[in-house]
Write a structure and sequence with these properties.
The protein has 22 helices and five strands. With 669 residues, the chain is mainly α. The protein has a domain of 334 residues.
Length: 669
């Protein structure tokens, strides 16, 4: 089993990252480089989270071997027996041989850092560029990132000059590398605590509110009102952009040098707009450079960028509106079925997508009623209580993990108790659950936050390339400090435990933070305590209230604006529901008509076809008879008949001579 667990987790994490990327990205429409870069960033970050517990169990076993080697011992097969206490050091089932983990962590860490600080920012600017060639997009991306890269180079250069001038510093390359890692982890830890403080409260609260049917339905109405406003704004913006494209397309003709750029813009427009512009354009007019003023290539690149953004936003709002309608209809069905005496779930509308037969067999209407109306609220409440308990443990451990005597961090207590008995399964499960919960709190916040329309992760393949790349940057910057924080909570980091023991392979790659004592003994220890203040602010919804005061409507139960938006959303859902019902009634009537009169129409149609066949055969026989009647044995040759046919002229039909008035036709006669 040596190394098998590592290989299995590498494969599993890859498919997990691929599944999530398929849910949010669009493999068919988005550029392959964007998909590959985002997949690599997500994959590396998820891989660190899943592999770190194996590193912890392997480190504990290596510490046991070092303790055995430093004392008289007896070797016995796969474990080592201490002579004085007869203690056994079993090899864990997921043991990774020496030398593999340091190389693995070095490759994963530096690849993720290259992605987040160099490649992904460049690809962001490249993806949002409106250039018409690869060279133009690269040039735009370099110009936009010049300030970004120049700032880091300036800071790093100033630091090197300070170190070279100051005689008290005698830094080597390894120490400079550690300082760079510490700077990146400090930036990541600053953002990590902000996101963690929000997720520790919001995740249990969202599951607790998920058990409230009325709450979910009111929030859906609120979302419907906001989304309808955004949808109308997106449609209006798209109309304005398409009007500009139409003007540009009509002014720049087919033989203009910039016509290729216009054609590229037209390909990004929706199909209905392309057809409308194609009908109204006369490409056979020559352009006159002296009479008309034509846009420049720079302005066309800007228009191209606006078209890409407006089309993506319009498509996203359309899809989200349909998804929100389905959620609202389903929640209304749940509210109606709660008082059902038959205890069978009845849907107002049938699902538009074909359901799996296996799911239909097991998830019957009766099972659906018991789950949705009876079991699901209690399950969500129990899950919310469990998550809230976990959040309290995390907050307590974040505030006390620096204490080693006595050990106050509960995660460190659990790991140390398991380490005494060398229960590696328990160690790995405890480590995995701890770091998995921390990752869920941080990563779910990344998926939830929205920075206006520039960064927004929308499911159902509606996330643009810029947001996908930005999420990859955030994951790569947040994961290393998240793992270091986890090792500090469990006292597996020698900087926190102050023990001269073998560090984990991950910590050895990070280097000793003693080079910067004010960061190792100050910022890394006391800054995570800020999570308490952030949790309190999130619990009382201080951020939501501030956004509401600034004019960004947020869902608040005690707000008059929220009540108005709920009423508006309720009316919108009712209107869409009536429209859907009329459509289904029309389809049912057409289906009944086909079932009732379909056979009669088919018989009538077959009878008419049979009659036409008889008439055609009768006409063919008459034609053959007349042809044989007028054909002579000694008639003209084939050439004479062709000449006669060529001399014959058809009658000229003049449409002007046709008149509907019978009086005028009589007078004409």
């Amino acid at each position: 089993m040596s190394g098998a667990a590592l290989g299995l987790e590498i494969v599993f994490v890859f498919f997990l990252a691929l599944f999530l990327l398929h849910r949010y990205g669009d493999f068919k429409k988005q550029h392959r480089l964007v998909i590959v870069a985002t997949l690599l960033a997500w994959y590396l970050c998820f891989l660190i989270v899943f592999i770190l517990p194996l590193d912890v169990s392997t480190t504990i076993y290596n510490r046991c071997k070092l303790a055995v080697n430093s004392s008289p011992a007896e070797s016995n097969g796969s474990y080592v027996t201490l002579a004085p206490s007869k203690q056994k050091c079993f090899k864990p089932w997921s043991y990774i041989p020496d030398g593999i983990m340091p190389i693995f962590w070095r490759v994963v860490y530096w690849t993720s850092q290259f992605l987040t600080w160099i490649l992904l920012p460049f690809m962001q600017s490249y993806a949002r560029s409106g250039g018409f060639s690869i060279t133009g997009k690269i040039k735009t991306a370099l110009i936009e990132n010049a300030i970004y890269y120049g700032t880091y180079l300036l800071i790093f250069g100033a630091f090197l000059i300070y170190v070279a001038v100051n005689p008290n510093f005698n830094l080597q390359w390894n120490q400079l590398q550690t300082i760079g890692i510490a700077a990146a982890n400090t930036w990541g830890l600053f953002l990590l605590v902000l996101l963690l403080g929000y997720g520790l409260v919001e995740i249990p609260r969202s599951h607790w509110n998920g058990a409230k049917r009325g709450y979910l339905l009111m929030k859906t109405y609120f979302k419907a009102a906001k989304l309808m406003t955004e949808k109308a704004d997106a449609e209006e913006n798209l109309e304005d952009i398409m009007e500009e494209v139409r003007k540009v397309s009509e002014s720049i003709k087919y033989n203009h040098p910039l016509r290729k750029c216009v054609d590229t813009i037209l390909k990004k427009c929706p199909t209905e707009y392309q057809e409308r512009m194609g009908r109204n354009m006369d490409d056979y007019e020559d352009f006159d450079e002296r009479q008309n003023s034509y846009p420049s290539e720079k302005s066309l690149a800007k228009l191209h960028k606006q078209v890409i953004y407006s089309v993506q936003r319009h498509r996203r709002t359309q899809v989200q509106w349909q998804i929100l309608l389905e959620q609202a209809f389903y929640l209304e069905d749940v509210a109606k079925n709660e008082s059902s005496a038959t205890r069978q779930f009845v849907h107002t509308f049938h699902s538009q997508e074909p359901e799996n037969k296996i799911i239909q067999y097991f998830y019957t209407p009766t099972v659906e009623w018991y789950w949705e109306c009876l079991l699901r609220p209690w399950f969500y409440r129990a899950l919310a209580v469990m998550l809230a308990t976990f959040s309290v443990i995390v907050v307590w451990s974040e505030c006390t993990f620096f204490s080693t005597k006595p050990v106050l961090s509960l995660f460190a207590v659990f790991i140390q108790l398991a380490e005494k008995t060398y229960n590696y399964i328990y160690i790995e499960m405890a480590c995995f659950l701890t770091i998995f919960f921390l990752s869920i709190c941080v990563y779910s916040t990344v998926f939830r936050i929205r920075v206006f329309n520039y960064y927004y992760l929308a499911s159902h393949h509606q996330t643009d390339a810029y947001s996908l790349l930005f999420s990859g940057m955030l994951f790569c910057r947040l994961t290393p400090p998240l793992c270091l924080n986890f090792l500090g909570l469990t006292h597996m980091d020698a900087t926190i435990s102050h023990k001269n023991t073998q560090p984990t392979a991950y910590t050895s790659i990070m280097g000793s933070m003693r080079v910067l004592s004010f960061i190792a003994d100050g910022f890394y220890i006391y800054y995570p305590m800020l999570v308490v203040i952030l949790c309190i602010a999130t619990y009382f919804s201080l951020g939501t209230r501030c956004l509401n005061l600034l004019g960004f409507q947020q869902f608040m139960g005690d707000s008059e604006m929220t009540s108005d938006l709920i009423d508006e959303g309720k009316e919108l859902i009712r209107r869409e529901k009536r429209k859907r019902q009329r459509q289904e009634e029309g389809e049912n009537r057409r289906r009944e008509w086909k079932e009732r009169y379909g056979n009669r129409d088919e018989s009538t149609r077959s009878r008419a076809v049979h009659t036409d066949q008889k008439e055609s055969s009768f006409s063919e026989t008459n034609a053959n008879r007349s042809l044989s009647k007028y054909t002579r044995s000694n008639g003209r040759t084939e050439r004479d008949r062709i000449e006669l046919l060529q001399d014959a002229e058809p009658l000229d039909f003049n449409a002007d001579s046709v008149n509907d008035d019978p009086l005028e036709s009589d007078s004409g006669r």
